[in-house]
Design brief:
The protein is α+β, with helices and mostly antiparallel strands. About 15% of the residues lie in helices and about 45% in strands.
Length: about 600
């Protein structure tokens, strides 16, 4: 079925191209001995018409207009001695023709830079000239002149001349030696040094807290990247509808000559109630209610109360997030909850509390560390390898966990990546006491990569690899919620939640101390916001530190994607290839964002 759809899609594409070619005529035919790239550019510059000219008069008008467009393009590409002739051929069916003899291409002579007002310091002067990017002897294209001028102004701004601007440039075209000599006339403006932050907001944000976030000291030279970093620090808090960060006008300089940075903040509504529902053929239904307070303490904090009622995971709790806690880029999160998990593998009723610190580095990557405490009752079904029989037991356990992890995001989009890669690694040393005592370390790593197969990410090949291992524990002693399970929308599609891996005789998932998962997915945009995907997932759970890949389960499927402003909506239909007793014929998953 998929091959038929692919062939049909190819056929529609070919038909659309043929139709466009059949109805579009060039305004004029380009003739002459031309470089293929130059010919393509000339055809684009001349453009297309809805149909052939209706008369010789119309053909003459088109030929003259096309010749003017061709001449302008040739000059912009450095062909200042080109010969362009417009002609009309045919009597009954007139045709516009442009004959082009490009001649020799002009090249750049040594460019000059003239400072029209302020003169930058010698080291700044030398630095921006070195970044101009115009080499003597390269083709004298107009676009290179404009780009070089932009690099001069941008370089000055980056090095402290925030008010730098270009005044009308002068370009000398010497037909005798066939050179183009640009003269850039730049007003560098004064060297700007920074003061503190000037906050403009109607919200509760503390000016002292915003001033604490600035990455510069008073008197430091202006650096646009530092100003952008302050904007990033405010945006990542997630509590503002609008963030504006800009250098104050020159007239607002202090007596010392420093200029403040103006920060404009528009707060989100202080209180937000969210209600959501989830439906899955493998995990059942659930309802969530979240009551959020933003900026309660005037430092972009978020206090969230959550209640969830679901067949597998129900809980009630609260968490407090304090961004930039004692260090810019570091977020403290305090959480507490009453939890009831009722899965096929175990039932858990517990109280949970945690404190985590997450430190951002770069724009989207971070590392985190923290501590968690859980205490509650576990009802578990396991397999006793000594007796060779299933065993059910209840345990009251207290669990202390140290948590550390890192996330590196080198992709181009958080919800719908088309290029790059992501890596997540974590380690959790854990101590268990109560009716059992055990020490172990739970480790996990996941790598995702995205390869565009066509320009602009129309077709993307995505892959995911996830591995995990519990060191120092075994299946019987490690609490059930710390074992590895596989299956479901976020792991191996086509199987129920926890449906991949060994099972007890009554079909209860056993869980394991090692995990392997791999996924390959081809994503393609069809039209506008609509896209499709085809995928294959595989997973295995084992009782040794390395899983037995011979016991891996495989699922395949197709999906639909629909892009919305906040990310794609995903609907997947997946089928198990290694169906066992108790497995459904298919699974359906609907969620926001790509599968990985």
């Amino acid at each position: 079925m998929r091959s038929i759809l692919q062939k049909l899609g190819l056929g529609l594409t070919v038909w659309a191209v043929w139709t466009a070619a059949a109805w579009a005529d060039p305004t004029a035919e380009i003739r002459g001995e031309l470089d293929p790239d130059l010919r393509r550019r000339l055809v684009q510059a001349v453009g297309e018409s809805d149909g052939p000219p209706g008369s010789r008069f119309e053909a003459r008008r088109r030929a003259r207009a096309a010749a003017e467009d061709a001449t302008a393009l040739l000059r912009s590409e450095g062909y200042y001695q080109a010969v362009v002739q417009d002609e009309v051929e045919g009597e009954e069916t007139a045709r516009a023709v442009v004959v082009v003899i490009p001649g020799e291409r002009f090249v750049f002579a040594v460019p000059t830079v003239t400072w029209t007002d302020e003169v930058p310091e010698p080291e700044i002067d030398a630095a921006v000239r070195s970044e101009m990017g115009l080499a003597t002897g390269q083709p004298g294209r107009a676009v290179e002149v404009i780009a070089a001028e932009g690099r001069l102004v941008a370089g000055l701004s980056r090095l402290g001349h925030a008010d730098a601007r270009a005044t009308p440039r002068r370009v000398v075209v010497d037909h005798a030696v066939r050179t183009v000599e640009p003269e850039f006339r730049i007003d560098a403006g004064p060297l700007v040094t920074l003061d503190g932050v000037q906050l403009e907001t109607r919200g509760r944000t503390s000016p002292d807290w915003v001033d604490y976030l600035r990455p510069w000291e008073e008197g430091d030279r202006y650096d646009p990247e530092q100003v952008a970093e302050l904007e990033r620090r405010l945006l990542e808090t997630g509590v503002y509808d609008g963030v504006g960060v800009a250098l104050a006008p020159a007239g607002q300089s202090t007596a010392e000559g420093d200029r403040p940075v103006v920060v404009t903040l528009t707060d989100r509504p202080r209180r937000v109630l969210e209600i959501g529902a989830t439906v899955s053929t493998s995990e059942g239904a659930g309802i969530d209610a979240i009551w959020t307070h933003y900026n309660r303490f005037g430092r972009a904090d978020t206090l969230r109360y959550q209640a969830r009622l679901a067949g597998i995971d129900s809980r009630i709790g609260a968490d407090l997030s304090l961004p930039h806690w004692r260090r810019p880029g570091r977020t403290l999160t305090l959480s507490g909850a009453l939890v009831n998990e009722d899965t096929d593998a175990y039932v858990r009723s517990a109280v949970s509390a945690s404190a985590d610190l997450r430190q951002r580095w770069g724009r989207t990557s971070y590392f985190s560390y923290g501590v968690g405490f859980d205490a509650g009752q576990y009802q578990e079904s396991r397999f006793d390898p000594v007796r060779g029989l299933p065993v059910d037991f209840d345990r009251d356990l207290a669990i202390l966990t140290l948590r550390g992890g890192a996330y590196v995001d080198a992709s181009n989009d958080p919800l719908d990546p088309t290029t790059g890669w992501r890596l997540f690694v974590s380690a959790q040393p854990t101590a268990v006491t109560g009716e059992d005592t055990v020490l172990f370390v739970r480790t996990e790593a996941q790598l995702s990569a995205y390869l565009p197969l066509q320009n602009d990410g129309v077709t993307v090949l995505a892959g995911r690899l996830r591995v995990g291992s519990v060191l120092g524990g075994d299946e019987l002693t490690v609490p059930s919620d710390r074992l590895f399970y596989s299956g479901g929308g976020g792991s191996v599609r086509g199987y129920a939640f926890q449906g991949v891996g060994p099972r007890l005789p009554d079909n209860t998932p056993r869980g394991g101390v090692s995990l392997f998962e791999a996924s390959v997915e081809v994503r393609r945009r069809i039209r506008g916001p609509l896209g499709m995907a085809a995928f294959i997932d595989a997973g295995a759970v084992g009782f040794d530190q390395v899983p037995d890949l011979g016991q891996a389960r495989i699922g395949v499927g197709v999906g639909v994607r629909y892009d919305l402003p906040f990310g794609p909506i995903r609907a997947d239909l997946a089928f198990p290839l290694d169906k066992r007793e108790g497995d459904a014929d298919f699974q359906i998953y609907i969620s926001i964002g790509q599968a990985f």
